Amino acid sequence: MVIEEVHVKDRYTHVRARTEQICSPLTPEDHVVQPIVDVSPPKWHLGHTTWFFETFILQPHCKGYTLFDENYGFLFNSYYETVGARVIRTNRGNMTRPTVPEILAYRTYVDDKMEELLEGDLEDSILQLVELGLQHEQQHQELLFYDIKYILGNNPLFPSYSSASAPSSQKTGAPAYLTLEEGVHTIGYQGNGFHFDNELGVHNVFIHQCALQDRLVTNAEYLEFIDDGGYQDFRFWLSEAWEWVKTHQVKAPYHWHWVEGTWSYYSLSGGLQKIDPAAPVTHVSFFEADAYAKWRGLRLPTEFEWEVACNQYGLISEDSNFMDSDHYSPTPKIDGNNQLYGDVWEWTASAYRPYPFYQAPEGAVGEYNGKFMVNQMVLKGGSCATPSDHIRSTYRNFFHPHLRWMFSGIRLAKNL
Amino acid sequence: MVIEEVHVKDRYTHVRARTEQICSPLTPEDHVVQPIVDVSPPKWHLGHTTWFFETFILQPHCKGYTLFDENYGFLFNSYYETVGARVIRTNRGNMTRPTVPEILAYRTYVDDKMEELLEGDLEDSILQLVELGLQHEQQHQELLFYDIKYILGNNPLFPSYSSASAPSSQKTGAPAYLTLEEGVHTIGYQGNGFHFDNELGVHNVFIHQCALQDRLVTNAEYLEFIDDGGYQDFRFWLSEAWEWVKTHQVKAPYHWHWVEGTWSYYSLSGGLQKIDPAAPVTHVSFFEADAYAKWRGLRLPTEFEWEVACNQYGLISEDSNFMDSDHYSPTPKIDGNNQLYGDVWEWTASAYRPYPFYQAPEGAVGEYNGKFMVNQMVLKGGSCATPSDHIRSTYRNFFHPHLRWMFSGIRLAKNL
Amino acid sequence: MVIEEVHVKDRYTHVRARTEQICSPLTPEDHVVQPIVDVSPPKWHLGHTTWFFETFILQPHCKGYTLFDENYGFLFNSYYETVGARVIRTNRGNMTRPTVPEILAYRTYVDDKMEELLEGDLEDSILQLVELGLQHEQQHQELLFYDIKYILGNNPLFPSYSSASAPSSQKTGAPAYLTLEEGVHTIGYQGNGFHFDNELGVHNVFIHQCALQDRLVTNAEYLEFIDDGGYQDFRFWLSEAWEWVKTHQVKAPYHWHWVEGTWSYYSLSGGLQKIDPAAPVTHVSFFEADAYAKWRGLRLPTEFEWEVACNQYGLISEDSNFMDSDHYSPTPKIDGNNQLYGDVWEWTASAYRPYPFYQAPEGAVGEYNGKFMVNQMVLKGGSCATPSDHIRSTYRNFFHPHLRWMFSGIRLAKNL
Amino acid sequence: MVIEEVHVKDRYTHVRARTEQICSPLTPEDHVVQPIVDVSPPKWHLGHTTWFFETFILQPHCKGYTLFDENYGFLFNSYYETVGARVIRTNRGNMTRPTVPEILAYRTYVDDKMEELLEGDLEDSILQLVELGLQHEQQHQELLFYDIKYILGNNPLFPSYSSASAPSSQKTGAPAYLTLEEGVHTIGYQGNGFHFDNELGVHNVFIHQCALQDRLVTNAEYLEFIDDGGYQDFRFWLSEAWEWVKTHQVKAPYHWHWVEGTWSYYSLSGGLQKIDPAAPVTHVSFFEADAYAKWRGLRLPTEFEWEVACNQYGLISEDSNFMDSDHYSPTPKIDGNNQLYGDVWEWTASAYRPYPFYQAPEGAVGEYNGKFMVNQMVLKGGSCATPSDHIRSTYRNFFHPHLRWMFSGIRLAKNL
Question: How far is it, in rounded angstroms, from Cα A408 to Cα A406?
Fold first, then answer.
């Protein structure tokens, strides 16, 4: 693995600072709660990402390192069975201590030691672990945006996170199609940069002739589905999806609110507001994405089709809407950008399963991806909450099909 | 009703300040969470008690009063169906906004208006509502102690609330008995001070000859029950109690922890510490109180026996351990004080049902007590978290029989 | 205790045969299921009542007795912790074996041995146990009617249990009042016949002047409550009752069905049919009884008031509607019969708690009543499913306040 | 589609009779219950399969047909939203009526009409529906075995279904490997016989070089996993699988019982008995199959690898253990038979998702397969409860990954 050209210490400092910056508009109160099991308290993210460096790097590789607090291991482990007991997930939101200032002190303490360590000559294996820790922190940066949006968006006061509003609305034209060539294609990560274990197991996949739309499904398009009674017609829904719709009385994407006779949504930029018809629809579950596609008479692309399309048509540019854009909301298509990267994670038709040659690494790091490979679906492409240097065409994100508190969206495909 | 001799405005100021003082050792983070449905976030208590004055006094009786924030009614109503929609109870702990400073500003705003109002000549009916609001706030002061103890006592760091420790331990002698005379006794509130609706309906009750112990059951005595296998022997337990013991694997009072081969408990004064054998046992459910009494071959007193005993033997003195003592823990018996008042609420054998002539008042105030009169048990006497001017022999507190996050304890009785 | 004048063996034979007669209209399929936790499969009742005689009489007191089947103890124990492991209650309805014929063979086997035993000279203590077993079986006869009604009444085909219809409807006059004398009254069983432990502890109770209606509340009267929006107005409901109404969307008594624009109910006699306006309302919970009383501006009697009224005004006559009448439904008041006995169990205002001198017996028999003395309400008077020789004014029945699959009803009272 | 050579009327009569024969060893009581949501009462299967012919064939295509009972549509619909309201699944086990004789009369009634119809000249589309109904009935024959085994195997008396025991045990040799050629293979049904919609969408799949074992994993092999602590070591388990193991305290395959120091299992043939070490392990979930494979350092085959292997190596012969063998248990490998067909359904590594060109048919029949294509895994090959004329290499069975009341088992694979 070739480590990024930026010096690792600078990268470390930059990534770590960004996390604190994400939390800076929050009050201490906002840092504490866990309204649903999928959301973690922001202060837990601050602590957990720090615990990762303390546990996997400082403790084993920094001589004479003294733990900041012995109890923190117990408090900030997430799901690594290898590393011992942990606060059960549903209990995270009741932990008022350590406080935000105490956790920030923990971060400073660990950062000082890490930066000291990173000034020295380090074995490649340690540098790889540092990079894993930073990628891990970037994933939590993205989760922070989901969780903050959930916490503030469920408050009856609908407080804004950022006062800046996302780029203004404009009409979006009809979608065109990106066609794929029929035949055997190679799938999986083949470079020498950072990647996760689940991208390995490079292998061949046969893809039949098909085409993907050149942009994401918009709010205006999705509204047609709502207005056509899509949520009331079982024929478009998988059986479990239909149970989910009925049980939770789902009527629209998450964060949408029916206010005075029209649909509004809560946005991190600007709070409660009218829907932008040209912006990509987001906060939809796989269940909704699949139902929408059926209603249109089309389908979702497989993860393989998506990856091949992205290798051919994908582009990371100034127009890409990543976390770095500071919009925190998907934005309308700009000519020449097919939105394969950024804006919203795109649900694929593929269940999250191991690649043919997949091998989980040994030890705690091996728990990172492999053990989640059942009952989840693959999403591709990153979102407006993804750091721009954290995404690849081979990146495999995954969520349960009913979840939608994240920036998830839809791209349609069809056979040719 | 004769209003207290203290001028009502001074009393208002004093009570309101006391609530804020109770919260002053807390961090902002401590104010937010709701770890179980029975616990409310401290900042909710701060807001809700203020909402009471705003809704029931300022809004209807203060000309030109402008609401501090229109949304607060929705946020801070507790269970008054009469007054409109409310945040469902289990959701209280997810409301990070308004923040603590915002709620304190709300308090100041309402207090200013209230104090202005209280300087004028007020109708008796309004003065009575003010007094009800203050008594209501005192009840929430007591709940604040329970809830704070729950929040801090369930944190793996066991943070202290107060560094002062409760009066030092000393051996307690064997209990003596307070005997009651057989015959018809009158029950219920007959004075002209403040009282709740559920104390009215003065009526006669026939009491057979019996006697109550002259002190509370101690930790040392309760430990004998534990050590004798009391929690493992179904014969002492009501059927629902036994299910509760097995489901929750109950082995000791709440806030007790088995640490390094001995029982410790979490206390607001001093955090995690060795049990004081002479102090009254607390944080026991009715289920436990009843099982303990059966194991001893004795029984709990009825609420009527307790009230008659209290009228004859009860004493509020300097030795009484109320909130005003600032111990926040029950303390060992002092000679001459039979602990009928203060220390812990005493579970009685009586189900919480209306007195024969009970009438719920009209309107929202009528929801205060009457609608809870099923599936709960009566407790008497106040606790170390009760303001000393908030208790009477006729005061009827009530909790579900499985609850024990409050300062509840045991006094034994027997037939003669 | 004086044993009944009827020879015990004849009584044994009679009671046991009656149980089988109750099940005789059922198909084998009807005997198996347990649609809710409160209902037991009819074949379980057949086995359990037999197990009682085998376990408590034949096994300890009949030399050389061989168990019919070793597994039956495990299958047919109900809740006697003293006697060992048992099939958990929710699992009863999945036990297809033993079959009905096998259980009837079990009954025959035990009956033969019991009748042999009863021909000999028996100690009084054994005779008392036999009588307890028969009273126990009579209680299960009553439960059989509840459970059969639940099983058949929840079947979309609404099969009839009995083709005979209950006495024809007629208008019922306005209720008159039975007045009680103010003063000290004695409560509890003082005779020398059979009684349960919970009727003992004879003691004095002071009763204020009051009066009870001279008949049960009718369907027509209860319909006024429904039509007046009683189920939609929280003011009449206890807090837990209101939750129950909303959660279960309760709109009428159990077994009532809104069919083609009018209320019908399912009856054991004749299946689904129009409501008889003059018949007593039944299948109401305590929550509904209490709400109805509040809506009328009246109240429920306490169990003590009821017992005193019954001693003065109660009458078991040919007009009483017990199981022996074979109506299996409450019937309209007949002049001169105030319905204190039979028709429906009457909810009282009293929580089910021990009498002052109550002592639970030693051993398994001690689990019969005492351990249920929390969170339940007392009902008095027996029902149309109660054997006429199984009821007394001192009899204390008890159910949780939300239950209503049994024949429960309402009598109103007022202060004077 | 070419209809089977056997005349359809004979085939109809044969299949319908077989269903009743499966139920013939049951008592009426055995037909009623639904111990878990996945199990349906046997009498429900008898009714539902009949309802299928009545609803989809007789009602639309048989002039003047009179419904046997109007309520049966409501009672016996399973999950066809298109066809109207249905008894919710968890309630099936409370329906004691119609009785078994009534349902058998329903079968006779429908069979008479069907046989009359089948004697005439029928359009191909109707014949196809008849064949679908028969295939549907064969699926329920298989489910009947699962459900009967669950009902009897959970009865403390462990009654036998059949007294004949499965072929006697013998040692099984080490597995050999069936190798697959690397390259593009065609997947999906290409014949002109009966098939389900989910087998269509013939398409190409690239398969890398790999090999499948030539027999199923045996009980002896699986015991090594148990004895090695496999159920206690999280490293082998998917995250949701580990939760499942802990929540349900899973320690062995379903129907296994630890009796007097050794493992026994319940079998339809012979009841509770010692495990046959050479027989294939069955009643394992996907979670267990996957964990076992990881523990062995191998993996499960994908559904595509399995289909290609089956096309090359699979054989339906006299040695195949299907329902027709009347063993009702998987049996040890016989030389020359690699067990790809029969014995147990084999968990594959593939999530159940639509093939690239999959199209759900219009109408109720379209609900047969497509709407279940999420959160389930594909199983292949049929089992000892599958009719031998009901299976193909392209047949895609599917179950949720935690289920194991069916005859499910394991075949291992490896990369080459």
Answer: 6
For chain C, percent of residues with pLDDT exceeding 70: 95
Here the tokens at position A3 are 């480590």
| d(C-alpha B100, C-alpha B93), whole Å | 13
Tokens 């503030």 found at: A152
Q: Assess B29–A contact: CB distance below 8 Å, yes or no.
A: yes
CA C57/CA B279 separation, integer angstroms: 49
CA distance C386 to chain D (A): 25
C270-290 burial, b for 16+ CB within 10 Å, e for fewer?
Answer: bbbbebbbbbbbbbbbbbbbb
The minimal CB distance from C349 to the residues B204, B242, B353 is found for B353
pLDDT tens digit sequence for B13-29: 999 999 999 999 999 99
Contact A349 D351 (CB under 8 A): no
Residue D339 DSSP symbol = -
pLDDT 10s digits, A138-186: 999 999 999 999 999 999 899 999 988 778 666 788 999 999 999 999 9
Q: Which residues in chain A are closer than 8 Å to D293, comparing Cβ atoms?
A: none
Q: For residue range A56-96, what is the model confidence (pLDDT) as tens digits?
A: 999 999 999 999 999 898 889 876 666 666 666 668 889 99
In eight-state DSSP terms, residue D302 is P
Q: Which chains have 3+ CB pairs within 8 A of A?
A: B, D
C-alpha span between D76 and D52 (Å, rounded): 9
State how far the alpha carbon of A372 is from the alpha carbons of A156, A230, A360, C282, D287, in Å.
34, 31, 11, 54, 12
**CA–CA separation, A234 and A248 (whole Å):** 15
- C74 to chain D, closest Cα gap in Å: 9
For residue range D108-157, list pLDDT tens digits in order: 999 999 999 999 999 999 999 999 999 999 999 999 999 999 999 999 89
Within 8 A of A287 by CB-CB distance, chain D residues are 374
B73 vs A contacts (CB less than 8 Å):
none
pLDDT tens-place string over residues B257-274: 998 899 999 999 999 999
pTM over 0.90, yes/no: yes
Question: Which of C234, C371, C401 is opposite residue B374, by nearest beta carbon?
Answer: C401
Task: Give me the residue label for tokens 């007959």.
Answer: B190
The pLDDT of B76-104, averaged and rounded, is 80
Q: What is the ipTM of this complex?
A: 0.94
Q: Which one, of B213, B288, C403, A304, lies nearest residue D206 by Cα?
A: A304
The single residue listed with the structure tokens 């202290």 is: B160
Inter-chain residue contact C375 with B401, CB threshold 8 Å: yes
Enclosing H/E stretch for C106? helix C100-119
Average of per-residue pLDDT across B110-126: 95
CB B278 within 8 A of CB B217: no
Interchain CB contacts (distance < 8 Å): C and D: 89
* Cβ contact B151–A94 (<8 Å): yes
Which of B240, B302, B354 is facing C374, going by the closest CB pair? Answer: B240
Average pLDDT over residues D213-224: 98
The residue of A46, A96, A147 whose CB has the most chain B CBs within 10 angstroms, and thus the best one to mutate to test that interface, is A96
* DSSP H/E element including C243: helix C239-248
Q: Which amino acid is at D353?
A: R
For residue C4, the model assigns a pLDDT of 47
Contact residues on chain B for C356, CB-CB shorter than 8 A: 208, 210, 302, 415
Residue D7 Cα to chain centre, angstroms: 26
Residue B57: which of B4, B134, B146 has the closest Cα? Answer: B134
Contacts of D among chains (3+ CB pairs under 8 A): A, C
